[in-house]
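Sanity check. The docking grid for manganese (II) ion depends on where the pocket ends up, so I'm generating a full predicted complex first rather than guessing from homology. Inputs follow.
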Amino acid sequence: MEVQKFYTLPKLSYEYKDLQPFMSEEQLKIHHTKHHQAYVNGANNILQKLDKAHKENLDIDIKALLKELSWNIGGHLLHTLFWENMAPPSTAGGKPGGMLGDAIEKEFGSFERFKKEFSQAAITVEGSGWAALTYCMQTSRPLIMQIEKHNTNVYPMFRILMVLDVFEHAYYIDYKNDRAKFVENFWNIVNWDTVTKRLEELIK
Ligand code: MN
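Predicted complex below; grid placement will be based on this.
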């Protein structure tokens, strides 16, 4: 396998127009080609700076660089998960069955209760951030994580099953400042097959 030393923008498995009417072509295209690309570029720039500093034994501001690296790698990886856990509404939405459906019911009492808590987590992120459904391998619990920016409040080692981006750049073209409406509509484009597969691969 060829060793990849830098990050690349992943291709989407659907067209930019395919998440309509819940996410417009313009909104998704800008989000993917401009915002996500900027995190890829940002992370790669810092890696190049580190490469150069290591090769030429240069002084660097390690604190500032690592902070910026965390922001950009977090942004890249979360967006990659986000695109994959959405799908065109004709094949998405509803509720998960199988192992994931069972785990959610066991932890939250019901899918409806989970949906409400996850939505609240997304709506109440201070400033920019994400809501994530995660899984703890030690306790076998699916837990919600409310991520500020791309990298704060993260539980280390927890695996991420599903994310929802609530940066304004994710919804402003379509929803203006109505984050709650965007969150409500997200449920129509959740790709539960992907989210369920992520859990199955963890605990098979
Ligand atoms: Mn985003």
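Relevant for the grid: The chain has seven helices and three strands.
Also worth noting: The longest strand covers residues 129-136.
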